UniProtKB/TrEMBL annotation:
Residues 22-40 have a biased composition (Low complexity). Gene3D superfamilies: 3.30.420.40. It comes from Nocardia vinacea. Belongs to the ROK (NagC/XylR) family. It holds the Pfam family ROK. Residues 1-40 are annotated as: Disordered. It comes from the Bacteria. The lineage of its organism: Bacteria, Bacillati, Actinomycetota, Actinomycetes, Mycobacteriales. This is ROK family protein.
Amino acid sequence: MGTEQPPTTVHRPDLSDRTGVATSAVPDAAAAPGPAAEQQPVTALTDDLLVLGLDVGGTTMKGEVTDAAGTVLASGVVATPQGEAAFETMGALGDQLLAELTDDQRDRVARAAVLLPGIVDPVRSIAVFSSNVGWRDVHIGNRFTDRWGIPVLIEHDVAVAGWAEWRFGAGRGHDDVCVVILGTGISGTLSVGGRLMRSAYGQTGEYGHIPVRHADGLRCPCGNIGCVETVASGAAIARAYAKRTGHATASAADVFAILDTDPDAKAVIAEAISALADGLLGLIHAACPELIILGGGLAGAGPALTEPLHHTIAERLRVVPAPRVVLGEFGARAGLMGAALFARQGALT
């Protein structure tokens, strides 16, 4: 469990020009799924109010209570249990963070956002499926709202992290942006014409499951052969280096660290970047994004990743301009930043 910490300040974008009434799907078990469901207005919070945000991952879940300036008033990290037990742990983490506040601060916590992995139905407040954590069709309903005594928004973790990077991070000011979250898996968001693209059931971009190595690729856990994730994810890079050299490595970061001195590391990284570029080419031709923003753990490689990816994409394009490839501003905090911004805004607008 997290320990009580003094307030610390984290960069938070100015929201003063983004106030007013936004529209969001408020979780309602009776509502029909998809964008056709009846939506209710949710007002963006005033700057004197606080928010609680939880970012649930396959290994750990993180939570913070923050103010409008980004000051962290309470924070914690706990391990994510398997299965439906994870939801009790989410509730307990929220309890812990709220208990760390003064009475005045607790009274000013006006809304929460809980970000979940896998497939999420935010309209009906259902955690549909997560293979990593092992839940299926968990009806969340009002369990957190009743427990914490505040409205709680439920959303997909990558959708919110990508939205935050687009609207308030590296993509702010641009209408056509692709955010790619690179880690154990690969996924992201696409914004076109100033709108975040969502499927009828709320998903964003499953870029990691675009097959790019049909003939000689590895089988992906999804069942296909040669998906982007089998070559370009963090786990795939570490696995490929170990297979090529016979030397196990802890992570993709270790492979990037020896890129300039180890020919095998250079070859593995080059193949990963090639596969990622192949996976993004169709999307680039279809939507012509101005920017590709890289987030997630692999984005820590910095220019060693962004520069060759941009060069590889540019080499393969003929009829559309090559987008710039940049790093996200929020880094590993994109989920927590997104949860706070989503809770404060009330909608992914």
